[in-house]
Design brief:
Length: 130
C-alpha cells in the first residue's frame, strides 16, 4: 500500500481554485426559470457563486451555465454543468454565496444561450446592482 499524506484523516487535497468573475445562469434541473449570478472562483470540482436572486438549499441538485472568458476559450464559449449545492452562506452585508459541485459538464455550441447582463428569455432580472 502506498502512503499518501494528503489523504490522512480521510481528507482529499483541495482542488486549485481560480478567481474568475464570469456570468453564470443557474436553475433547479427541469425548471423553466433561470437565475443570474457571478462566479467568485472555480475549480475542477466546483464553483462558488454570488447571486442576488433565489438561493437554492444545500443538497439540492443544480444545473448551471458558465460563460467562459475569451482567454480560456473562443469568445462566447459556454459550459453547461450539473451538480449539487454543497453549502450556502448568506452574509448580512453582501450577496448570498452558493458553493456548487461540478458532477458533469458539456461544452455548448457557440450562441446556444445568450448570456448577457439580462440573461436569456425567462431569466430572473434585472441583474444584481453593482
Amino acid at each position: 500500500m502506498v502512503h499518501r499524506p494528503e489523504l490522512e484523516n480521510d481528507r482529499r487535497p483541495r482542488a486549485t481554485r481560480f478567481k474568475l468573475r464570469m456570468p453564470v445562469l443557474y436553475q433547479r434541473p427541469g425548471a423553466n426559470q433561470w437565475f443570474e449570478g457571478e462566479s467568485v472562483d472555480i475549480s475542477r470540482s466546483g464553483l462558488l457563486l454570488a447571486t442576488c436572486h433565489e438561493v437554492l438549499g444545500a443538497g439540492e441538485d443544480v444545473s448551471f451555465i458558465v460563460c467562459l472568458p475569451g482567454r480560456l476559450l473562443e469568445p462566447g464559449g459556454q459550459v453547461h454543468c450539473t451538480g449539487r449545492v454543497a453549502r450556502v452562506c448568506v452574509p448580512e452585508t453582501d450577496r448570498p454565496l452558493m458553493a456548487m459541485t461540478i458532477d458533469s459538464f458539456a461544452m455548448l455550441p457557440p450562441g446556444a444561450v445568450a448570456l448577457s447582463r439580462h440573461g436569456p428569455p425567462g431569466s430572473a432580472g434585472p441583474p444584481c446592482a453593482e
